[in-house]
Specification:
Deoxyribonuclease I, Chain A; 9 helices; alpha+beta; six-stranded mixed β-sheet; 27% strand; single chain; globular; 257 residues
């Protein structure tokens, strides 16, 4: 199974075709879209990719999941809980018999310490929403725009956008890392780090014009490390201009492989 997570920037209006081209090149089976605010854009991408889709409205933006396999169930946790910005849970049925439970996450933005505190509160809702999956020992994925920095990242503030550099200085020379550390402590695996090792510490998904941070992730829970086949950030020229985020992807083998 190949999964892609992509923040398409404010609905992607006027950019549906380049966004679809970037996504199509990844050969994804499942696509998580963040800021999927424009229904026409989502439908156009889904038609081009011949995918089923579901959208879920959040506190700020919408999330969507597109799949070339049937989406058999979905829950809009953001609507039920009032936060985070978006939190969609969906179950996808693979023809071979496997099913995939996937959460599409969008957390609060900006790099000031106070913003990390907001994200920590949102993450409490995310972890609460997926507690039943963990309690049942059921493997699942969380992916999306977490707007949060990993504890392994080596960040050069000069490569970040001006607002992040401002936050870096205001924080006393750094950006907070508590949210991602808390996810790791809960047993979630950063697939890019698991597959690419130390290279993940310097990889960047944001912004496409100031690529200084990695805030977009695919996390797994309960999936054996031997099934994590590949992970990547797509940084080709079209991706640089299609959105302000680069898409991130992962390839995971089936349970019977």
């Amino acid at each position: 199974m190949r999964i892609l997570s992509y923040n398409i920037l404010n609905g992607g209006e006027g950019r549906a075709d380049p966004l679809a081209e970037v996504i199509e090149a990844q050969r994804a089976d499942i696509v998580a879209l963040v800021e999927a605010d424009n229904l026409d854009v989502v439908e156009r991408i889904a038609r081009r990719l011949r995918m089923d889709y579901v959208r879920a409205e959040g506190a700020g933006h919408l999330a969507a999941l597109l799949s070339r396999w049937p989406i058999v169930e979905s829950i809009n946790h953001a609507a039920l809980r009032g936060r985070p910005q978006a939190l969609l849970e969906a179950q996808v049925a693979e023809p071979g018999g496997d099913s995939w439970v996937i959460g599409v996450v969008h957390l609060h933005a900006r790099a000031f310490d106070a913003d990390e505190t907001v994200r920590e509160e949102e993450l409490t809702e995310v972890l609460g929403a997926f507690a039943r999956q963990r309690d049942a020992g059921r493997p699942h994925l969380l992916c999306g725009d977490f707007n949060a920095n990993s504890p392994i990242q080596r960040i050069d503030p000069e490569k970040c956008k001006p607002r992040t550099r401002e936050a870096w200085a205001a924080n006393g020379g750094g950006v907070p890392r508590r949210v991602i550390q808390r996810l790791l402590d809960a047993g979630y695996v950063d697939v890019l780090h698991a597959v690419k090792g130390d290279a993940a510490a310097t990889a960047a998904s944001f912004t496409t014009q100031y690529p200084g941070q990695r805030i977009d992730y695919v996390f797994t829970w309960g999936i054996d490390a031997s099934r994590l086949r590949d992970a990547w950030i797509e940084t080709d020229r079209l991706a640089k201009y299609a959105s302000d985020h680069f898409p991130v992807g992962a390839e995971i083998g089936g349970s019977s492989d």
